[in-house]
Amino acid sequence: MGKVQHRNWRYCDIVCVDALYAKAPLINAVSALNKWVVIKVKQDDYHLVRDMDGLVAGCPPDVELSGTTPKGEPIPNNHGVTYSVKIWDEENFTSWDGVGCPLRCLKVIETKTTTCRGEVVEVEESTYHIVTTAPKAIVKAEVVWQIMHRRWDIENSAFNDLKQNWRFRHCYTHDVNGIQTMYALFCIAFNLVMLFAYMNLKDAPARGVTLKELARQMLVGMETLCQPITDLLPRAGPG
């Protein structure tokens, strides 16, 4: 994070991580860079969680949302996933050992409803806690909830796709700079393909052309070019 901060001062305002990174050194490191952190924490591992549960016991939620989505978009034709959410939101906790600043804790009870063609096919309820250094006066509770959900969306879609279909999990080099370069190339290639498929072709996904089929067609097209692909690339000027 320090290197990225040095190269791109305002690359982000909030760092969102899962329970694996719920450690005091990370919270302090992010805070030292003048950024806020948003972390999902496990139920029973922290005094802060127990303090939060005791503080809000018997109290009405601060925020209630019904039939919403993390992106705030309506689901088309009653087909998709919506959430009903209750959020309790308190701040100025100091019971996390080693953390150098007061923390804010959100207790979330959410009901996930999956609808298929107008019929409810699954209802799932879960309870979890989110810890953040973002103040209540600036970042609303529902926005913190959306941020955490969007991180899960990225993990479940983009990173899962990269690992399953783009060999992102394979380490091609053990050199530190080489690893960063390879992952940067992966991300560039992935974004270019996504832009080509969804912005240039536009109607291909709607016609049922999958990305795997698109990649196969591109490979066949490269193999059947009437001239080498290197001849089509721009050449450097003299000097």
Mean pLDDT: 85
User: How many strands, what sense, and barrel or not for the largest sheet?
Assistant: 6 strands, mixed
What fraction strand? 15-25%
Q: Give the topology string: H per helix, E per strand.
A: HEHEHEEEEHHH
User: How many strands appear in the DSSP assignment?
Assistant: 6
Structural class: alpha+beta
* Strand arrangement, major sheet: 1-2-6-5-4-3
Tally of individual helices: 6
| End-to-end gap | 38 Å
Helix content, binned percent: 25-40%
Q: What overall geometry do the principal axes of the alpha carbons give?
A: globular
Low-confidence stretches: none
The value of Rg in angstroms is 23 Å
Number of domains: 2
Can you walk me through this structure?
- The chain is an alpha+beta fold and about 240 residues long.
- It has 2 domains: about 1-165, no CATH class; about 175-230.
- The chain has helices at about 1-5, 25-30, 45-55, 140-165, 175-200, 210-225, and strands at about 15, 35-40, 65-70, 80-95, 105-115, 120-130.
- A 6-stranded mixed sheet has the order 1-2-6-5-4-3.
- The radius of gyration is 23 Å and the shape is globular.
